[in-house]
Amino acid sequence: MADMVDNHNDDEGPDLGRTYHSGPVIMRGPMIPEADANAGLLSSGGDTDWLHMDPWRVLRIQAEFVDGFGALAELGPAAAIFGSARIGREDPNYAAARKMGGDLAKAGMAVITGGGPGIMEAANKGAAEVGGKSVGLGIELPMEQGLNRWVNLGITFRYFFVRKMMFMKYSSGIIVCPGGFGTLDEMFEVLTLVQTHKAPSMPIVLFDRVYWQGLFDWMSDTVQQRGMISELDPDLVIRTDDPDEAVEVILRHRD
């Protein structure tokens, strides 16, 4: 609690007056605030700009971590399936994601997606249809319409980095279906953490070989040859067109 004490200084130099203690911090002279923390806490009116300042954001971020850890801590073995929200239900990749979600759930693994439409909906649907754990980790975005109806355990996050932490912490394998910037962001996050040993090694399956071919040609022919990255572990980064193979790779490495 803050308090006031007299400051008697017999040494040479200016007398800065009394000393104000606020926890471990001391303030003197013009640095002393006009109102102490306790008075501010009990005040019912005043400026509300503090709601939008970084210290308050830290508490919201902390609360998101607590909510995520609390909801997912007892989830058990799980795999994440990433992919575009724009893929329609008639797309072959929708059917493949639905099958992969169902097969993983039948094998006793929870299926984690971003909770949206498209590939995410398909994977959640596959898991839910067989009575499995169908998890959706949503994100607040102006164009999003909330979690799809096939999610039976869902959380909506405000901060992307908190959401990414939940994907990484609770997934022991990743299947990446065709997608755009969001999917690429998630994929490279996983690759970065695994390659730098900041996260445990896990299988990363890229589904639809043709879709990923150009990107990986560039990574191996340009990025790797110029020494920007190390060779990707062929046992952990696998491209396939076969849903059964994708699931088999994940199950082979599960906890």
UniProtKB/TrEMBL annotation:
Q: Where is the composition biased (Basic and acidic residues)?
A: 1-11
Q: What is its EC number?
A: 3.2.2.n1
Family matches, as InterPro entries: LOG, LOG_fam, LOG_family_nucleotidases
Q: Does the keyword Hydrolase apply?
A: yes
Stored Gene3D superfamilies: 3.40.50.450
- Record field: catalytic activity: 9-ribosyl-trans-zeatin 5'-phosphate + H2O = trans-zeatin + D-ribose 5-phosphate; N(6)-(dimethylallyl)adenosine 5'-phosphate + H2O = N(6)-dimethylallyladenine + D-ribose 5-phosphate
Query: Which UniProt key words apply to this protein?
Result: Cytokinin biosynthesis, Hydrolase
| Matching Pfam families | Lysine_decarbox
Per the record's keyword annotation, is Nucleus included, yes or no?
no
User: Membrane-crossing residues?
Assistant: none
Enzyme class, spelled out = hydrolase
Q: Where is this region: Disordered?
A: 1-22
Family annotation (NCBIfam families):
Rossman fold protein, TIGR00730 family (TIGR00730)
Similarity annotation: Belongs to the LOG family.
From the Swiss-Prot or TrEMBL record, give the protein name: Cytokinin riboside 5'-monophosphate phosphoribohydrolase
UniProt source species: Bifidobacterium asteroides
